[in-house]
Specification:
Keywords: ATP-binding, Nucleotide-binding, Transport. The chain has 337 residues and is α/β, with parallel strands linked by helices. It is 28% helix and 27% strand. Helix 4 crosses helix 5. The structure holds iron/sulfur cluster.
Length: 337
């Protein structure tokens, strides 16, 4: 059994032994690019290009990076909504990389997703009661009354009144709809939840309510989160550890505290320098990156960040750096370390 020492983000920083729930090894997800009259495969988009990381039970790993960096593809591949091109996905000690049919259906009870857009993710023709009870009906044999009670209990856990049961998605605000989505994700009591930008479509005023709810539910249901977001302030609030992605690669992984206090990768340094800081004493000079993220269909040679890196050297054009542990638990992929 794989155990290591991990810091939890309860601000008292308790050291506890945790088992690994999710172990991702050299994961690659490439999309074929089709073209021409016969729709032949003309190339590949390397959306996720050889990333490895693990998540401990009860932990939240935040995944950050600009749009198109591969964070959502990573989340969807882990949930087996996308087929991995290569690598391994070990969930609770079991290799789920290539399982299919009944085996995959059975495994899926343990990992669920919270989607970005609470407006699009709820079926408009189903009542809230139907939406939340659907996964339970699909996986368990439960009597009508017991099923309704389970759904009412879930509604109450996510802060919605029991009257919501007979209503429809359009009768709720964005924040309330996301609560319905969370209740649906919780219905099968999963071990892992992949939350893909769960608050980015919501008004700022309700974002913190939903984030706090996710934290409360994590403690209550003993959940492990892969929390995907482009907003570093949101990720900081939620995560124990954070992985930074750039163009399909993992460029830095560290504890929340270590990453924000001392980012090592030039890309992470630029992202963190862009976070608005209210305290003038803590304000740092903003590092503005030039240019755009290159296409993952034709990524640059060597370090994928070299086209925008203010510290790039000759060697960076040829050598692809791999993640290296620089201080305990803090890993970075850059030739400068
Ligand atoms: Fe910049 Fe080179 Fe480090 Fe890449 S390897 S982040 S280009 S210094």
């Amino acid at each position: 059994m794989n155990t290591t020492k991990t810091k939890r983000s309860t601000k008292q920083t308790t050291i506890v032994e945790k088992e690994t729930l999710l172990d991702i090894r050299h994961l690659k997800t490439y999309y074929p690019v089709k073209g021409g009259f016969l729709r032949r495969t003309m190339g590949q988009v390397k959306a996720v290009d050889d990333i490895s990381f693990e998540i401990k039970k009860g932990e939240t790993l935040g995944l950050v990076g600009e749009s198109g960096c591969g964070k959502s593809t990573t989340g969807r591949t882990i949930l087996r909504l996308l087929k991995p091109t290569d690598g391994k996905i070990l969930f609770d000690g079991k290799d789920i990389t290539t399982i299919s049919g009944t085996e995959l259906r059975h495994a899926r009870q343990n990992f669920q997703m919270i989607f970005q857009d609470p407006y699009a993710s709820l079926n408009p023709s189903q009542s809230v009661g139907d939406i939340i009870s659907e996964p339970i009906r699909n996986y368990k044999k439960v009597g009508k009354k017991e099923l309704k009670n389970e759904v009412l209990d879930l509604l109450s856990r996510v802060g919605l009144p029991r009257e919501a049961y007979d209503k429809y998605g359009h009768e709720f605000s964005g924040g309330q709809r996301q609560r319905i989505g969370i209740a649906r994700a919780l219905a099968l009591k999963p071990k892992l939840i992949v939350a893909d930008e769960p608050v980015s479509a919501l008004d700022v005023s309700v974002q913190s309510q939903v984030l706090n709810l996710l934290k409360e539910l994590q403690a209550e249901f003993d959940l492990t989160y892969l929390f995907i977001a482009h907003d570093l302030s949101v990720v900081k609030h939620m995560s124990d550890r954070i992985g930074v992605m750039y163009l399909g690669n993992m460029v830095e992984v560290a504890t929340n505290e270590s990453l924000y206090a001392g980012p090592l990768h030039p890309y992470t340094q630029a992202l963190i320098s862009a976070i608005p800081e209210m305290d003038p004493k803590k304000r740092k000079d903003r590092i503005v990156l030039k240019g755009y993220v290159p296409s993952p269909q034709n990524p640059p040679s060597g370090c994928a960040f070299h086209t925008r890196c203010p510290l790039a050297k000759e060697e960076c054009y040829q050598v692809k750096p791999t993640l290296k542990e620089v201080t305990p638990g803090h890993r970075v992929a850059c030739i400068l370390y």
